Please model this.
Amino acid sequence: MRGRTFFLYTALAFGLAFLYGPILSLVIYSFNASELVTVWAGFSTRWYGELLRDRQVLSAAWLSVRIAVVVATIAVTLGTLAGMALARHGRFLGRTFFTGLITGPLVMPDVIIGISLLLLFVTLAEAIGWPASRGMNTIIIAHATFCMAYVAVVVQSRLSGVDRSMEEAAMDLGARPVKVFFTITLPLIAPALIAGWLLSFTLSLDDLVIASFVSGPGSSTLPMVIFSKVRLGVEPTVNALATIIVGIVTFAVVVSGVLMHRAEKRRQADIQNAMREAGY
Amino acid sequence: MTATAGERRKPKGRATALRAPFHALAQRIGLSGRGLVVAVPYFWLIAFFLLPFIIVAKISLSQMIIGRPPFTDFFVWSDAWLPEIQAYLDNYRWLLQDSLYWVAYLNSVKIALISTLFCLLIGYPMAYAIARAKPTVRTLLLLMVILPFWTSFLLRVYAWMGILRNTGVVNNTLTSLGILDQPIQMMNTDFSVYVGIVYTYLPFMILPLYATLEKLDGALLEAAEDLGAKPWKVFLTVTLPLSLPGIVAGSMLVFIPAVGEYVIPELLGGPDTLMIGRVLWDEFFSNRDWPVASAVTIVLILVLVIPLALFQRHQAKVQEREA
Model:
């Protein structure tokens, strides 16, 4: 019994070290004065300065963030509808097929999604003249398509954990479905929507392969710029960029984790209060 | 049921002059508000996920030409009422003849399989340890597994370039400690590709494994132990079979994308690390042969059909259990 627990925790410790070691090395060497990334030559922040003067990186980052915000918003809207359909609509025509369409983008290799969407855009442009040019618009459509699948799964699993009786009570009292959705369902699944939005934002910000296929000239996203830099070898400014991203993500995850934990606690307390007042 | 009840009440005093005809029209084409909830994402996915594959299949049957678009037409409109279909199987014949493609497909599947196995071997004990931890610690540990997933995939791959290089962290440390006289070549080999895939996909293995292991009924394990089964026997006959859905889901989440991986072999692999994602990319961007690239895509989808079906079935089961 003891031996097994010991083994499990050792494995966990090594596993986490494996997950965090490389990230830590990026952070450490971003403060290295030497150009040869892995030879330590004293502490310096010069790569951060150089990064902030790199116009190409900055404009690509700005483009990526703008794309990611639009993508996350579209993906949450569509993904919520899809998640509602899966969790609340029982059987409908072509349900199995719909489930297939939702789970497909979750695992489909990027190269397949990228090439097929590009060929779709090219064919459409020939046939109906839309999209006239490829760039931000086509990247947004491509990203929203695979992000909505993730949102749908998150929303569906949240919905299945939510008690349906409140929605039913509202309906029985004469509220219209749209009103029920906005006043009852939406607040209940809000954590899933926030998680889905953040997930979509990150996935969009992170995608290299699909964006490379569907973007046009002059619209290079941040991963595309990073990729062209690191393809040639190790780049100290990329380490600095990685450190900034890791910092932002850690901060965001910790803050949202604490906020969600508090909101959940408050909700539980509210339910208990309500129960007590009702005399249970 | 409840939705229809709600809708039946709707017209009562609410149907304005404007809404009524719209409502009638919507009902005539079979769209209620409820229907729209399904229709909008359905339509989007058909247009931007399914239709593209049909177009890829179509273009894979055409031939490369110099022009815009750089492939021959599928339908040729002559004087007849119906268009003639102009399809060529040349691209598929080409894939069969050139051993490059065969080797690339087989190698991708091999690399993905071995990486999946390593993810499972590393991820299973981790998921098991997290599932058995105290609830408060559990949330924190889960967060720690998910956190790397939120940081850039590309940058996590890049991190290994700095670690595995001949002048990288590992080689520098080992030579300065006197363990090695000369650095070992780790970058640009199959080894670095394995490391990269296992590293980036590990969270995808741990999360579904954790989800099934967490639900595991402790009473079953105790019963088996009370009846005198040895720990490894309890594991093999109770824990492992019960966690099979998680193993399948996690393995598919790693295996399927890994087969088509492009970034990892491109950055960490050597020039001779053949993977189909890379071949597809070069065919498209360097050779600009869209029809052959399309044929490569279609064959790749066919290679992945069985794993995809397995994954779909797992997802459908999860959904049914939740519903």
Remarks:
- Chain B touches chain A through 94 residues (CB under 8 Å).
